[in-house]
Amino acid sequence: MRIGLVLLFAAALPGSMAAGCAGEGSAEPDALPVVDRGDQLGAQAVREVVAVRTAGAEAGVVSTQIFAVISAAGQQPPAAGRRTLRRELPPLLAVAAAVWPRSSETIAGQAPRSEAARLQRAILLRAVRSEQASLARLRRELRPAGDPWPAVLRFGRRSDELRRRLAGEIDAMMAAIPANESEALRRAFAGG
Prior knowledge:
This protein has one domain (2-189). The protein contains 7 helices and no strands. It has helices at 2-10, 37-54, 57-74, 78-109, 115-141, 149-176, 179-189.
């Protein structure tokens, strides 16, 4: 359960934000039956959480591509991996430099009413801005003729630390939100 909820929010940091929560590739959770006011508020929280997390989907796509290049380079012989990183990372990092600020602005522009979505928005903004700074640092550290792996490994460590921090923030958020929102999120994303 915790992993699914961590993925619900951390996925926004990018990569699998647009991955399906309801199966069939949908980014929307299964429909929740609305019975009373508490259920209505819970359903609203789920809709708002989905809206906030999809606000950064464009950044997620670029991040997924960056991590795919790094992973592919790691599977190659050392010299070929270095060439792959030197050739493919700079253009992706240039795209990221344009996309991440837009995603950050889109997330910041969300105005959710539910406590869950407001907290998630704050968590996501911190995460997106941290990852944006980390990508900018990686871009500065890459040298055309040098070995790219030290910079890439530092970037990976920063990303791992960010994801660990996110997991803790998400746990704290789930403990802090109203019970109806928490339960609705658990039901909607239990398969995540």
